[in-house]
Amino acid sequence: AFAPAEVSSDEAEAARRRALETRPELAQLSLARRRVSVDIRLAHNDRRPNVDLVYAPGVDTGRRGVADTLKAGVTVSIPLYQNDAKGRLDEAREKDRKLEQEENLTRQGILIEIDDALSAIARAAQRYREAVENVRLTRRVEEGERTRFREGDTTLFLINQ
User: Fold this and answer.
1) Distance (Å, rounded) from C-alpha 124 to C-alpha 133?
2) pLDDT confidence of 65, banded at 50, 70, 90?
3) Which of 125, 107, 111, 108 is nearest to 13 (CA)?
4) Do 89 and 47 form a contact (C-beta atoms < 8 A)?
5) What are phi and psi of 4, to 5 degrees?
6) What does the DSSP 8-state code read for residue 6?
7) What phi and psi values does residue 56 have, to the nearest 5 degrees?
């Protein structure tokens, strides 16, 4: 006869780990958080000073001009306060916090689903054991009634009942 197996705590923990590693919802949230981290880095970069090296051909004209020349230079811009960059940084940080909370909530939901499934397996195993015990006791009562019938103490109706 088939008897349901109990799920060990090691198997349950392995199921939880495997679910957290393979569920697509968590992978999707992880990718979204990586995109937001790129936005955060870009917004940080926009708030930093900008240094450009310039090297370009030119023409020196005029009475004392030397005709074709090459010009080199450095352009430095230091942002004093940029609302756009600060706003993008704040927005990206808020998105990251929101995604982190959503990821935690999704993770908890997955663990609850796993625990519910494990609980259903345990309940099914318990119901199976109770049914087996019920059958055993019913057969014992039936055997007792048959013994009483052989001794003439009961009727066939009571045995079948």
Assistant:
1) 14
2) low
3) 111
4) yes
5) -65, 140
6) P
7) -145, 150
